Amino acid sequence: MRFSTLLKNPADWMQGTGPHSDVVMTSRIRLARNLRNWSFPGWSSERQRVDLMNEVRPVVATLPEMKDGFNEEYTNLTKTRKQVLVERHLVSREHAARSTGCAVVIDRKQSTSIMINEEDHFRMQGIRPGLDLRTAYEIVNRVDTELEAHLLYAFDQRLGYLTACPTNVGTGMRASVMLHLPALVLTEQIKQVMNAVSKIGLAVRGLYGEGTEALGNLFQVSNQHTLGETEAELINRIEGVAEHIVQAEVSARDKLLHESPTNLRDQVGRAYATLRFSHILNSKEALNHLSMLRLGADMDLVTGCDRGLVDMLLLAIQPAHLQLAAGRDLSPEDRDIRRAEITRRVLQSVPEPLNVSIDNDQSADPSAPSPDSDDE
Prior knowledge:
Elements: H1 3-8, E1 24-33, H2 46-61, E2 70-73, H3 79-87, H4 93-96, E3 103-106, E4 112-116, E5 122-129, H5 133-148, E6 155-156, E7 160-161, E8 173-180, H6 182-186, H7 190-199, E9 202-205, E10 218-223, H8 231-259, H9 261-277, H10 283-298, H11 307-316, H12 319-326, H13 332-347
Antiparallel strand pairs: 1-5, 1-8, 2-3, 3-4, 4-5, 6-7, 8-10, 9-10
Helix pairs in contact: 3-12, 9-10, 10-11
Pfam families: ATP-gua_Ptrans (PF00217)
Family: Belongs to the ATP:guanido phosphotransferase family.
Region (Disordered): 351-376
């Protein structure tokens, strides 16, 4: 599969569907694996990394799940194309920063990707829409089992899978969910919720993982350690926490709807107006406004706009996607202009937010009589 084909066929996890997809955007399982008798990538010479890549890449490409997928060495990918893969959450930022001796194989549905020579020899991930860690695990576990039948993994009977970083030893598994939590942010409950998550040993990160900001009210929650718990136990724990966060977000949305309806309408309306009519939009501003638009769509305040449309826009306005579409490198100023052009074009058919009172007590028309009016 060519890179252009990869872009033309959006993954199903980008469609805004799945369990609790109004709050949980994606569920992802990542496995770290290494080969016996080979040095970890960080301790290898360039020649060793190239040799390992050349040995394992054909094996990965012939797996049934990866047939006719995207399969490329990083030396053949431009910086922009690698960054596009990061923005699509198909490879890590750290892997994209590397070149010689690194490669990635991605299935046609973009639900499975295998990074070769990241921090470990393999970083395999399965990704699904909504809260569906079990299916994501089934996807990547099937690939892992098939690989293990052909390759000799570094495994210890007492410790489990051996990895470059001690925090990944054991199952080598990280389970994470991407959560959209605008109402918890607006009601100023987000810090309390995230502190509670951290206290039970889970990590809270931003849009692109460790060290990144939670732009667009998007938060990643994942396990921090992989030793001492089985895969099933880890998945159950993450899903249980995610369910509680979903309930908290839903309650916060209900609170906004009934206690601060005008403020909610204002937030959604301002976001729509900015996205619909701006001629310059930076990344942070666009992400935060798209977050409010997604909230408005989910709460039926914006008609003709589903979350799938917003989720696709969240990708299309990313810096590397903008530059790839333009066919050249863009200055930050040019990216801001193109970002605004795209949002104006995509949203031109979306009607403005409903101009009615949320509690339906009366019309938002200022000329309409109030319930206490003495007019006959």
